[in-house]
Amino acid sequence: MLDVATEAAYPPFILGKSRFEQSTFYGRFRHFLDIIDPRTLFVTESRLKEAIQLLEDYKHGTLPPGITNKELWGAQKIKQAIIHPDTNEKIFMPFRMSGYVPFGTPIVVGLLLPNQTLASTVFWQWLNQSHNAGVNYANRNATKPSPTSKFILGYTGAVISAVSIAVGLNILVQRANKFTPSTRLLIQRFVPFPAVASANVCNVVLMRHGELEDGIDVLDSSGQIVGSSRIAAKHALLETALTRVVLPMPILVLPPIIMSVLEKTSLLRSYPRLVLPVHSLVCLAAFGLALPLAISLFPQMSEIETSRLEPEIAARTTSRTVVYNKGL
C-alpha cells in the first residue's frame, strides 16, 4: 500500500519538469509549495553537490542502481530551491523564494505596527523594498547580462516610490480631522497595502527593465533557443508584476482585520505583551499562505504562441508555441 502511495506521489522523473501538473492552478500551487519549502535553507553544501551530481548522472544515463523517482524529485527540488536556472549559481539565502517568508515576516510585522512615526514608516518601507529588490533581481530571467548600474537605478526608484506613497498616505490620514482617533488608527493599519502593492510593481519593472530592452530567450518544444524576444519579456514582467500586486493582499489586509478583533479579547487586554508575538504569528500564517497563492497564478516556464512574437523570431521555428522563464 505504501509503495502505491509513493508511486502516486512521485511519478516517473522527467528532468526539468515539475512532478505536479502545471496547466492547473492547484498543480502550480503544490509545485510552488515545494519551491518555497524553508527546509531547503538548511541543505548542506555536500547534500547540494550530491543532488546536482544525481541529476547529472540521470542526464547522462549513468544513474547508480536502486535510485528511486522520489530521490530524483527530491534532488531536483533542492537544486531548484538553491540554484538559479539561468546562471547555475547559488542564490543568496535571504533572496531565495524559500527564504522569502522566513526573512520577510519580521519586515511585514514592522510594516503593520500601529502608531508609526514618519521615521519608522520610512525605515520599514525602505527595508521591505530592499528585500523585494534583492528577491526580484536574484530570481529574474538572467539569460541576458545586466549591468550593475541598472540594478542601482531600479533599486533607487523602487525605494523612493514606496516611501513616497506610504508617507503621503500617512500624512493624508493624519490630516483627516473628520476621522475619530480609533478610525484613523484602523485606516493607518491599511496604508501599507497600497504603498507596497504599487511600489512592488515599480520594483519589478525597474529591477528588470533591461529585459524589455534586450528581450529574453524563448525556447521551442525541443528546448532549443529560438531567439531573444522583447514581446515575451513584456509578458514575463506583466505576469510577475501581477503576482506582486496579489502577494501583499492577504499579508497586509488580513492581519490588521484579525488583530483588531483579537486585541479586544480578554486575553490580550489582560496580557498586552502578547500582542506582538500574536501579531507575528498572524503575519507569518498570512505570508505563508499568500506567497504560494500569488506565484501560482502563472507557470514559471510560461508559454506564448509563436505567431504573437516578432516576425523574425517566429520565422525561425515550426513550433506553434514557445516557452520562456518568467522568473519569480
Explain the overall architecture.
This protein has helices spanning 2-9, 25-35, 45-59, 69-82, 97-111, 118-138, 148-175, 181-190, 192-207, 209-214, 230-246, 248-262, 266-270, 275-295, 311-314, and strands at residues 216-219, 225-229, 301-305, 321-325. The chain has 328 residues and is mainly α. A hairpin with a 5-residue loop joins strand 1 (216-219) and strand 2 (225-229). The chain is globular, with a radius of gyration of 22 Å. Helices cover 63% and strands 6% of the residues. It has two domains: 2-82, no CATH class; 93-325, no CATH class. A two-stranded antiparallel ribbon has the order 1-2. It has a two-stranded antiparallel sheet with strand order 3-4.
Features of the shown structure:
two-stranded antiparallel ribbon; single chain; two-stranded antiparallel sheet; 6% strand; globular; 15 helices; mainly alpha; 328 residues; transport; 2 domains
Itemize the secondary structure elements and their pairings.
Elements lengths: L1 H8 L15 H11 L9 H15 L9 H14 L14 H15 L6 H21 L9 H28 L5 H10 L1 H16 L1 H6 L1 E4 L5 E5 H17 L1 H15 L3 H5 L4 H21 L5 E5 L5 H4 L6 E5 L3
Antiparallel strand pairs: 1-2, 3-4
Structural class: mainly alpha
Count the DSSP helices. 15
The run of helices and strands is HHHHHHHHHHEEHHHHEHE
Mean pLDDT: 83
Instruction: Characterize the main sheet.
Output: 2 strands, antiparallel
Distance between the termini: 37 Å
Overall geometry comes to globular
- Percentage of helical residues? 55-70%
C-alpha-based Rg, rounded:
22 Å
Question: Numbering strands along the chain, what is their spatial order in the largest sheet?
Answer: 1-2
Low-confidence stretches: none
How many domains make up the 3D coordinates?
2
How many beta-strand elements?
A: 4
**How much strand content do the residues show?**
5-15%
